[in-house]
Write a structure and sequence with these properties.
Blueprint: H1 3-12, H2 19-37, H3 71-77
Length: 93
Amino acid sequence: MDKKTVTTISYLSRLKIDDGKEEKITKDLKNIINFVDQLNDVDTSNIEPLTNPLEKTAKSRTDEVTAKNLKKELLKIAPSSNEDYFLVPRVVE
């Protein structure tokens, strides 16, 4: 990681970096890359991949209708309706 790379990254990410902070950011990015690079040293050969990092499963339930069909009652009390729909005034011509 050098200053040119940091300048390129800041340009691509549309971030303005002060010249005084460029050296600190370069050092911080080197530390981040070294930290993440440690993952390559971990032996994961006997570890099974996870589909979810929390190792939880979704709760399931039976699909049952619990609400009443109030269509007829609601259409009866509507100001204007036909057999299946609410009728409203035309707003776009």
